[in-house]
Every structure is written in C-alpha cells, then in structure tokens.
Design goal:
This protein has about 190 residues and is α/β, with parallel strands linked by helices. The chain has one domain: Rossmann fold (3-Layer(aba) Sandwich). About 35% of the residues lie in helices and about 20% in strands. Strands 1, 2, 3, 4, 5, 6, 7 and 8 form an 8-stranded mixed β-sheet that branches. Strand 1, helix 1 and strand 2 form a beta-alpha-beta unit. About 45% of the residues are buried.
C-alpha cells in the first residue's frame, strides 16, 4: 500500500507522529512524504525545518513533496492508496471543509478525494471545540474522509483543544482502506 503522509503546522506533535511514520515504513508501507509550506520552511522551538525535512526524507527514502505542482499528479496519476494528514491543524481542517486549495497538503487531499480514495485525518487543534467545530463536522460527514479517534487532551488547561490518539493511526489506516471509520471515534483521556 502506498500512503501519502502529510504534515501540517502542529509542530509540537511531530515527536508523537514521526515514530508512526517509522512504524508504517517498518510494516512495509511505501510512504510518500508531503509537507505544508510552513512545515517545510519554518524553524520553531520544536526543531529546525531542515532537521525535520532531513529526518522525514531519511525515514521514507523519498524527497518531500512541498509544492502545488509536485502534489497535483496525485489525482490524475492515482499515486496514493491512502492519504494521511497528521497532524492536521484547525487551519487545514477549515480549508478542507471550505474547498480552499492553496497549499500542497490541501491540494493532495483534493486530488485524493477526486479519485474517491481515503483520506485519514489526525486532528491537532486548540480550537476543535470552538470555531472549528463546524469544519470538523463537515469533514466527519464527508465521503472518503476518516479520522484517527480523538479527544480533549488537556480539557482544563485547553478546554477547546482536540488531538488524535496517534497510537490508533495504523488501525485507522487499515479501517479507512476498507471504507470504515475506526470506532469509537470520540475518546476520553
């Protein structure tokens, strides 16, 4: 199975998601790395862009797709069996829910949906139970869209924050490849 693995700007969760890229690779999946503009270019307190790019390219053995022209063929050429967006920020969720296709990650998703192939979303947003809840609802009701089960990670410190349970990523991919949502979807931590 060829999996597109797209990372968006929830930089604090990279240390949680990257081990699962390694795990998927070890399970024999062919991983195609994709990064948003911000992830590809911005240094943060969680690491330099170059170090994240190097690490992901070393793990996958592939060059990161990070421009619109690089990801556009995903649709016409049917390059992916499953596209994973993890972490998927509230900003990306809003763009997906509203048909805005202005970054490599959302273009990859649009290309995947074009072929009625599964997209797996690993949510990581501080406003999931706020203004972005309506966008999550739109995606939950969208065909070929599946979520890694998620819940409130710190309900008393960040009462509107939602995050995926990264350990359920492999199971969610398997379920999505059979057109099923892994259950239960909503978790309590």
């Amino acid at each position: 199975m060829r999996i597109g693995f797209a990372l968006t700007g929830s930089f604090c969760t990279f240390s949680n998601t990257v081990p699962f890229i390694i795990g998927l690779k070890e399970l024999g999946y062919d991983i195609v790395p994709i990064m948003s503009d911000n992830v590809y270019n911005i240094d943060t307190r969680f690491g330099s862009a170059l170090s994240w790019r190097s690490r992901i390219e070393d793990i996958t053995g592939r060059e990161i797709l990070h421009t619109l022209p690089q990801v556009e063929p995903i649709g016409p050429d049917k390059l992916l069996d499953v596209l994973v967006i993890a972490p998927c920020t509230g900003n990306t969720i809003a763009k997906l829910a509203n048909g805005i296709t202005d970054t490599p990650v959302v273009m990859a998703c649009k290309s995947q949906w074009r072929n009625q192939r599964p997209v797996v979303i690993g949510i990581s947003t501080n406003d999931g139970l706020g203004i972005n809840l309506k966008n999550i609802a739109v995606l939950l009701a969208s065909k070929d869209t599946f979520f890694i089960p998620f819940g409130q990670d710190k309900p008393f410190e960040k009462p509107k924050s939602l995050v995926a349970d990264w350990s359920l990523l492999p199971s969610t991919i398997e379920a999505a490849s059979m057109n099923q949502q892994l259950q239960p979807l909503l978790l309590t931590y």
